[in-house]
Amino acid sequence: MQQDKIVVGLDIGTTKICALVGRKNEYGKLEILGMGKAVSEGVQRGVVLNIDKTVDAIKRAIRQAEEQSGIDIGVVNVGIAGQHIKSLQHNGSITRPSGDNEITQDDVNRLTADMYRLVTPPGSQIIHVMPQDYKVDFEGGVTDPIGMAGVRLEGNFHIITAQSAAINNINTRLLLRLPNGALDGIHGFVNIQHYAALHPFGYGLAHA
Q1: pLDDT tens column, 10-38
Q2: N or C: which end of the chain has fewer CB within 10 A?
Q3: In 74-192, which ranges are E strands?
Q4: Which CATH number fits domain 86-163: 3.40.50.300, 1.10.260.40, 3.50.50.60, 3.30.1490.110?
């Protein structure tokens, strides 16, 4: 089984912690291979308050998911939940050197990267930026600008922010204490219950 097609979601909820292992099939759909869950005793309102209890619960959930799927988990996409999750809409734009050349993925990436530089309220940080639609030379309704010609590229973005302390607890105090030392931190997934209320086109990997 190709490891690059494996996706692992880890949802750290107030009542339970879930690990979900999936594989992208030949149709581009996610096929569920295994799941693990454990009672969550160290989290309140989406914020990790007891590191030891939360680490133990994550280990149990991951172990179950590994046994059920037969996959050795090394990288996870961590779902962030809690009342500290906020969202906002923002428009951005870049000016390209020439309108004769086609818009490339690099242009789109540069516009998206600008969104991560927005100033957020003290104690918060941007964890995910999602493009909604684009304009090319003021022509709107563009879902994919790559390949189009134009000087000005604009985008409407949905931006998710979270409390920096909550992110740091997960990244530096919690995940680093898990076995293998290979588990990644935040990959930008937001818990589906909060995210769906903020953005009708959102999705997550696991319910809290």
Answers
A1: 888 888 989 999 998 888 888 999 999 99
A2: N
A3: 77-79, 86-95, 124-136, 139-142, 152-163
A4: 3.30.1490.110
Instruction: Tell the residue number behind the tokens 């990644």, with chain if given.
Output: 184
Asked if residues 130 and 120 have their Cβ atoms less than 8 Å apart, the reply is: no
Q: Which CATH superfamily, name and number, covers 3-82+164-198? A: ATPase, nucleotide binding domain (3.30.420.40)
Do 82 and 45 touch, CB atoms closer than 8 A? yes
**Tokens 């999705």 belong to residue:** 203
Q: What residue ranges in 16-151 does DSSP mark as E strands?
A: 16-24, 30-39, 43-44, 47-48, 77-79, 86-95, 124-136, 139-142
Question: pTM of the predicted model, to two decimals?
Answer: 0.67
